[in-house]
Design a protein that fits this description.
Distance between the termini: 33 Å
Largest sheet: 3 strands, antiparallel
Structural class: alpha+beta
Strand content: 15-25%
Low-confidence stretches: none
CATH class: Mainly Alpha
Helix content: 40-55%
Order of helices and strands: HHEHHEEH
Shape: elongated
Number of domains: 1
Radius of gyration: 17 Å
Strand order of the largest sheet: 1-3-2
CATH architecture: Orthogonal Bundle
């Protein structure tokens, strides 16, 4: 969850969903000012982390709308949780100056 939230775009997505509630992708892309393909990438990461959920619906005109909303979550930020998150990070690259 922490890794998913470490990206500024994803933080803005969570904020927009918290403020606006359930919202469809095109509207969300306009709301936060990024392209739909980039938004889909970030939404997939948030959904994989269990932070958002999606539901595909048909509009009255027959258009498919993919709605997203915040999933209930609570993150306990303890030293143990930070250590576990840090263990998932890749090792820093070594430079020739070392």
């Amino acid at each position: 969850m922490l890794a998913a939230l470490a990206n500024p775009h994803r933080m803005r997505i969570v904020r927009a969903l918290q403020v606006n509630g359930r919202i469809y992708v095109s509207q969300l892309a306009r709301e936060i000012g990024i392209s739909r393909p980039l938004l889909h990438l970030h939404l997939r990461k948030l959904e994989e982390a269990g932070l958002v959920t999606s539901q595909l619906e048909l509009s009255s005109e027959g258009k498919a709308l993919n709605f997203f909303q915040i999933a209930p979550f609570d993150i306990a930020l303890t030293p143990a949780e930070i250590a576990a998150a840090a263990a998932s990070l890749s090792a820093p690259s070594k430079t020739s100056d070392s």
